[in-house]
Amino acid sequence: MKAYKCKNIRNIALAGHNASGKTTLAEALLAKSGALSKIGKVSEGSSVCDHEPEEIKRKISLSTSMAYMEWREHKINMLDTPGQFDFIGGMSEGMRAAETVIITVSARDGVQIGTIKAYNEAFKQRKAIMFVVTKSDEEDADFGKALAGLKEHFGNSVCDFSDKEAVSELAAETDEELMNAFLDAGELTGDQLIRGVTLGLVNGGLTPVVSVPSGEPEEVGVLLDLIVDTFPSPCTGRGEPLNTEAGGDFLQYNDEGQFSGFVFKTIADPFVGKMSFVKVITGSLNSKTEPINRRTGEIEKFGKMLIVRGKKQEEIGEVCAGDIVTLTKLDAVTNDSLCGSAAVAKSAESDFAAILFPAACFFRAINVKGKGDEAKISGALKRFLEEDKVLSYVNNTETRQRVIGGLGDQHLDVVVNKLKSKFGVEVELSEPIIAYRETIRKKVTGVEGKHKKQSGGAGQFGVVTMDFEPHYEDDIVFEEKVVGGSVPKQFFPAVEKGLRESTMHGALAGYPVVRIKATLTDGKYHPVDSKEVAFIQAAKQAFKAGMKNASPCLLEPILSMKITVGNNNTGDIMGVVNKRRGAVLGTVSVGNNMTQIDAEMPQAETTDFALVLLQMTKGLGHFTQEFTRYEPLPPNLEADVIANAPAVAVD
After folding, report:
1. Rg for the chain (alpha carbons), in Å?
2. Of 49, 104, 377, 414, which is the most exposed, with the fewest CB atoms less than 10 Å away?
3. Which residues are within 8 A (CB) of 465 and not within 5 positions of it... i.e. 6 or more apart?
4. How far is CA 332 from the centre of its chain?
5. 472-501 per-position pLDDT tens digit
6. Among candidates 338, 366, 364, which has minimal Cα distance to 352?
7. In what order do the strands lie in the sheet with 100-106?
8. How far apart are CA 21 and CA 619, in angstroms?
9. What is the pTM (predicted TM-score) of this model?
């Protein structure tokens, strides 16, 4: 394929609610353009964009898929993004590479949660937006009702593209010159209308609605013409967002000058290897280019330059600004900026803003079934983390668990299945162990610890007398108030060491002990038999006795949460927070009929909160969470926690 110049490139992302017709529309566009000889179907597992085995099995898109086509001497790069909420991270990366987002809406179902989420993401990324109403030939479908719903939800910029008068009025409002022409002539010429529509798409003043009733190829010729004629090219769009402190700055695409590019997607395949999807921002990229990774400062070597259509790949020799290329064997990762020279790498105009992915909020411990697979899983998960920037993974040394995080149970289920099919590793998921802590409620004084051992020759002897009391620091504080040298100073560090080793496992359930002040007040020693090891053991004995008599209790981790929901769900979600022993700290309106609830909740009450929120808000709600502090566990819950304390806490 020849290298297309920036002005002849169109990058579009398809988004919308699950099963609203995105992939069917993609197939129709590819078939009409001549890129396909036969249209595939999602239900049969034959579509170009849903080609992964897991996608074929589940009959849904799990990640953004790339396909290109040619139409009227233009190259159209199409990114088919997932509509299922657990995989919405793919929508974020797919939209980033596009100038225009086409949001599909079923004429039967109208505006759904996925429609709103897609629009909000496109609006946040400041993309041009078009709605395509699908399935209007189905029973109970109503294009007029769907159009009315779009106008109600998204405002006066929404306009039926077949209503030429309304389109002309909105197009005229995008530019003073066009408005004057419209007022003078009462209409716009064809070229003026195209210019006004393009301006309206870029600045958000015009959001066209087009009908594609059954998704057949013969219906999308007009849409392909609209994409070529009115959709902004990379060099007429808003540009690529820069990573500036204030935000809102963009670098314009340009065929001239030094190469710069942005890695917006990574595929880590155990057989093909690593594949990096790169959008060229300035200049051009060819096989002789040695790009510099701005993050690492290192020269990047790559294997092949490919353009892809689903799972099919074709080598290409050069790509220009605005185009998308897939590079193999690149060390760079998603969100890396690439530059053509060291000078460009130091420029602020080569530091592109990172894609903001949703944070993982559903966590499970991942346990390997086969003993021989322990060594495989870390490498396999590393590849998944490169590919899916929503996933999180922690090897928790305290609980001795590998903990993986995603957006929901389906998200993690796909990871489990891919681990088996791609890497031959079988795993199972379970609820993560909660990292409780132990402390004391009251002060005890004069607690003695004694260690005496005689086995021929020099023995071991050490006695300490200590006070223990609650403290505010999440640690143990050690002081000494020994009078008269009953414990020589050289043994103070040994006493502290014994105490700190003792805090690793508390008296109640074996959890680490915090918030204690220990004071050494007295003791005894022997000039020959006293050694460090004796005072370490004496301190441990004192700590054990002191904990039992100081009213020990459990502390549980509290998480700070920011929960964003629709205004109509706010009261219900606040009720859930309260029922789960949480506290609502406040609410704030965040626009688009959404409210952010600031809350705190015990970690033990959040393990399934992502699923509950998904169900109650029908997928619209989302949240972030982070550890904030430990608080005493209610006494009525202690017995159950102690009874179910994992072996890791008490071994």
Report:
1. 31
2. 377
3. 446, 447, 448, 449, 520, 521, 522, 523, 542
4. 19
5. 988 899 999 998 889 999 999 999 999 999
6. 338
7. 65-71, 74-80, 9-16, 100-106, 128-134, 207-212, 158-160
8. 19
9. 0.91
